[in-house]
Amino acid sequence: MTLIVHHLHVSMSERIPWLCEELGVPYELKVYDRDRLMAPAEFKALHHSGTAPVIQDGDLTLAESGACVEYISHKHAQGKLFVPSSFPEYATFLFWWHWSNATLQSALGGALGAYAIGLREGDPRGGICFRPL
């Protein structure tokens, strides 16, 4: 059965088709445009979280880009993208695997959003938007 990738424009879902292409995983891409700034109802109906991306693999429906990347990687990459838990630096691997999505992305998103509305570092209205990493 072909993997279905539900892609919402301006979201974290670009990485899923990219990963599938790199691994040679056949997939069907369904693209959704945002309804103003939000996901359309058709997309939100795919998964209770309403977040992008969403993949469907047979009876499985999975959301969240990190979860989708891990699922596809473990199922299709034949161990090329992960190290075994017995690897001496396994915890360090996990830290960096999740760091970009959990820490860097949120910090950059906040800073870019604040910058887009005219706030600069040192402006008290920026709150935590310009916090050091």
UniProtKB/TrEMBL annotation:
GO molecular function: transferase activity
Family under the similarity heading: Belongs to the GST superfamily.
Pfam family, one: GST_N_2
Entries under CDD domains matching the protein: GST_N_GTT1_like
UniProt keywords, alphabetically: Transferase
Domain GST N-terminal: 1-80
PANTHER family in UniProt: GLUTATHIONE S-TRANSFERASE 1, GLUTATHIONE S-TRANSFERASE-RELATED
Protein name: Glutathione S-transferase
